[in-house]
Structures are given as structure tokens and as C-alpha cells.
Amino acid sequence: MPDGARRGLFHADEISPTDLAKQIAALDQQSRLPGIPRLRAWTISALGLKPGDRVVDIGSGTGEEARLLAETVGEGGEVIGVDPNPGMRTEAERRAPRARFVDGNAYALPLPGESVDAVTCERVFQHLDHPEQAAAEIARVLRPGGRVVVTDVDWATAVIHPGEPGIVRVMTESMHGGVVNPYAARRLPGQLAGAGLTVDDTGSQALVQSPAAATGPLVAMIARMAVDRGVLDAAQSERFLADLAAGAQNGDFHMSVTMFAVLAHR
Ligand SMILES: C[S@@+](CC[C@H](N)C(=O)[O-])C[C@H]1O[C@@H](n2cnc3c(N)ncnc32)[C@H](O)[C@@H]1O
User: Fold this and answer.
1) Considering only Cβ atoms within 10 Å of each terminal Cβ, which end of the chain, N or C, has fewer?
2) pLDDT over 90 for what percent of the chain?
3) Cα 21 to the chain's mean position, in Å?
4) What is the pLDDT of residues 224-252, one digit of tens each?
5) Mutation choice for ligand 1 from 83, 122, 130, 149, CB with most ligand atoms inside 8 A
6) Are 181 and 227 in contact (CB under 8 A)?
7) Of 172, 149, 189, 182, residue with least CA distance to 231
8) Is the pLDDT of residue 6 over 50?
């Protein structure tokens, strides 16, 4: 498989203006699932933010999380979104005018040491080749007593139903191959502890797709990827798609992956 395919849509090495609309559409589709707003609400409460706090959101994407953070810390506070993708930063500036968005990388945050009260980082670690380096950067910029929540999925928790068991297993496994760090979530506590932080709690939510996903672009893309990788043939892929579509029509459909949000402090 070419390295680009393994790296997936959101990796920092693969930023092209033409992908931007697709990236934003994918994030917006996921943000509409109940699991994302629930886990963001948990995150904001777990961070114990106060008016006036200074917060950095790493890999800020469309700025939706930064917008919520800015509402929480108020006018006297400051929210800085860091993202290497200029198109994402432009979109984030539009959606979260009270936050500030800067060019930067999780591996070398453009911030002095001990300069922020809180850090958030959602659905970024799965795209990082060196997540432990990003954890070290979080520990560097947090002030003593400052808190962080790093949120990500663990692709081994993916569930798809219905379908022939052998085909479903291959399809589920082929979802793991879409990112460089597919089991990001289970590694977060160890990486944050390894950076010298104290892990306090873990929140979680499954991202449960609606039955409409059975005939949507995400499932079609997963099926195409499995055929391209040669792990299923075209006939098996068609049977998979037909089984899902029939299940969705009868109300017998489930597709999810679980997100974990790890709270730690310095
Ligand atoms: C899946 S999106 C998540 C966006 C946002 N955090 C959210 O949850 O809606 C991943 C984001 O991480 C950014 N990203 C990718 N590699 C990065 C890196 N090395 N450092 C910082 N951000 C990165 C991408 O540009 C993209 O905006």
C-alpha cells in the first residue's frame, strides 16, 4: 500500500487545498453524532476551566472545540488553536472568532514552557507517527497544576453489523489501516504518564452512526479500500454493502467506534 493511503485524510504530510472540503465535511458529519458533543461537554467540565484561563487546542481543525473553550474562558481568557493546515485555520477563524489560530505542529508547539492552564487535543494522536513527542510537548507547555484532555478513538473498538462474519471481520480490520496510529486511545494514559503527567480519569463515548451511514460515503470508502488492498474481492464487497443496506432498512444496523478522553494534570 502506498504510504499516503496508510496515512489517511488528516495527516499533516498530506495537506492539499482540494482535500479541504472533504476534511471539513467528514468532521462536520462526525460532529453531528451525539458522542462528540457529549465527550466535549465532559472534557470542558473535567478541565475545570475558569474565566480568564489560557487554553491551547492542538490540531484545532474547524475550530468547533476552540469555540466552546472560548465561551467557557470568557473575554478575559485566551484560546489558541494550533493546526498546520492553513485551510483549516481559515475555517476555524470563521467559526470561532473569539479564539486565535496559529500555524504549528503538535511536535513543536509555538508556545513557551509552562504558559497555559489547559490543553485539549481531539482526534489528532491517531494521525501522529510520534505521539509520545506530542505528549512531551503538552507537558512542556502546561503550567504546574494545569490540566489536559487528549481524546481519540481506538480503531480496534470498531463494530459493523450485519454481514457475513468473515467479511465483516476483514472490513472492520481494514478500518484500522486508515491512520498511522490506529490504537491511539489505549496508548494515551501511558504516553501522558511517560511525559511526566498524572493521569486522573478517562471519559468515553461510542461514535454511533445512524442507519443512513449504511448507504453513505464512509461505508462505501471502507469497502473500496478493502478491495483496493486486495483483502476482499468485488463480489464480497458488494455483498457486504447489500447486507448493510438491507439491515438498515429493517432497523438491524450498527456501526460504531469508541472514543476515549484521558484527563491528566501536571
Ligand atoms: C481529525 S482532525 C480533528 C480536528 C479537531 N481536533 C476536531 O476534533 O474536530 C485532525 C486535525 O489535526 C491536524 N493535524 C494533523 N497532524 C498534526 C500535527 N502533527 N500537529 C498538529 N495538528 C495536526 C489536522 O490538520 C486536522 O485539523
Assistant:
1) N
2) 85
3) 17
4) 989 998 999 999 999 999 999 999 999 99
5) 83
6) no
7) 172
8) no
Specify the residue with its C-alpha closest to ligand 1, atom 16: 12
Task: Establish how many alpha carbons lie within 13 A of residue 103's alpha carbon, considering only the half-sphere containing its beta carbon.
Answer: 3
Find cell 486486495 and name the residue: 230
DSSP 266: -
Q: Residues with Cβ within 6 A of ligand 1? A: 10-12, 27, 58-62, 64-65, 83-85, 88, 105-107, 122-124, 127-128
Query: And the C-alpha cell for 62?
Result: 474547524
All domains of the chain in start order, with CATH: 3-154+179-205+260-265 (3.40.50.150)
What pTM value is reported for the model?
A: 0.93
What is the spatial distance between Cα 36 and Cα 39, in angstroms, rounded to a whole number?
5
pLDDT surpassing 60 at residue 14: no
Q: Could you give the count of Cα atoms lying within 13 Å of 206 in the half-sphere of its Cβ?
A: 12
